[in-house]
Amino acid sequence: MTQSPHREPVPSRAWVVLTLGLLAQAAGTMLVSAPIYLIPMLHLDRGVPLAAAGTLASAPTLGMVLTLVLWGAAADRFGERWVIAGGLALTAVAAAGAAWAAAATADLVPLGIALFFGGAAAASTNAASGRVVVGWFPRHRRGLAMGVRQMSQPLGVAAAAVAVPPLAAEIHTDGVFVVIGAILAAITLACAFGIRNPPRPVAPPAVLAPTSTTKTTARTTTNPYRADSFLARIHAVSILLVLPQFALATFGMLWLITGLGWNATAAGLLMGIAQFVGALGRIVIGGVSDRVGERVRVLRWVAIAGVAVMLLLALVGAAHEIIPAGLVVGGIVLVIATVVSVADNGLAYTSVAEAAGSAWAGRALGVQNTGQFIAASAVGPGLGAAISLLGYPLVFGLVALAPLIALPLIPKRDQHG
């Protein structure tokens, strides 16, 4: 039986590359997220102000902001393989620098500088690994594949949540970054040998008369931002939807400890579980978008759920003392809110890559991540100061405004380059 052109099989190489891309970004995310899970130790044990600790946690994301588009352009120009492997090698070097800084001085500035460069290097995996998915997978499998690829961020956060607090207690802050650096070095070698660039589409000869195929090819080689506002709207929506994600990832563990009375180990374990479930949720949501046939429709559902769960978290935070088993309920709601908060990334990422086309996917995904990480870098110091002034429940309620504002910005239908 002849395969439908819309249901072409997925080559086995695609799954190998997808797995390595997932591991690469998860390892980079582990370094980027590590300072988040040092906040309880810094704030409670060393007396570092919450805004200052949040600023340290934002240093890697600030580094990512400055290099995401450059890494995406490099992937468009030179291919994904060496961008991922080379960027990951530089991330391992930055982890070694962070270990040295943590061992050499109690001053947080050198550590923050090393983490800044670590984030700048880790950005390579964000733009290039997403581009690999679009290049290797046909459209009817991209939602699922991008959901798998987008597991990398919550898996990296989960690994940091589970590993960093006990490692910091046993082998101190410098030991944390030694371990992460070793993981990065091992995955760098795997990516250098295992990743292959996807086949590039071949432009039709110039002598042919214009057809629907040549029009599509022309669109993918011209600047897609000039055509309409689709990409800009998805970027704006993603910036708004990333605020709950980073608010919970940055301060969820500390809320469990200081707001609900959990111990650090239990709080870190719960955050790890939440991120792991969130990673699985991205696969489910990606598969749903494949079945529905519309990324943006499912994205709208996620935004509505985001408003609901942040308001529920605010309510539980304010009333946990009068709720039976309030400490347990608070933990459960935090897990649900975390899962919802990370569900949008794969949908938006796939929408951007498909709308941009193969020639612009790297740069468009770089812009996509840049906007998100600009917002994320403001979460640490901004919400840290707000929580100190207003408390967790009110701030959680205010964060619910972000997905509410995003709803009217979501486009009505998907677009394909």
Bin the helical content: over 70%
Distance between the termini: 29 Å
Mean pLDDT: 81
Low-pLDDT sequence parts: 1-5, 202-220
Strand runs, count: 0
Oligomer: single chain
Strand content: under 5%
Return the domain count: 1
> Mind telling me the C-alpha Rg?
21 Å
* Silhouette: globular
Instruction: Determine the CATH superfamily.
Output: MFS general substrate transporter like domains
The assigned CATH architecture is: Up-down Bundle
Give me the secondary-structure category. Answer: mainly alpha
- Total number of helices: 16
Could you tell me the CATH topology label: Growth Hormone, Chain: A
Order of helices and strands: HHHHHHHHHHHHHHHH
User: Which class in CATH terms?
Assistant: Mainly Alpha
Largest sheet composition: none
Short characterization:
With 417 residues, the chain is mainly alpha-helical. The protein contains 16 helices and no strands. It is globular, with a radius of gyration of 21 Å.
What can you see in these coordinates?
It is a single chain. Helices cover 80% and strands 0% of the residues. It is an all-alpha fold. The protein has one domain: Up-down Bundle (Growth Hormone, Chain: A), CATH 1.20.1250. It is globular and about 55 Å long. The chain starts with 11 loop residues before the first helix and ends in an 11-residue tail after the last helix. 59% of the residues are buried.
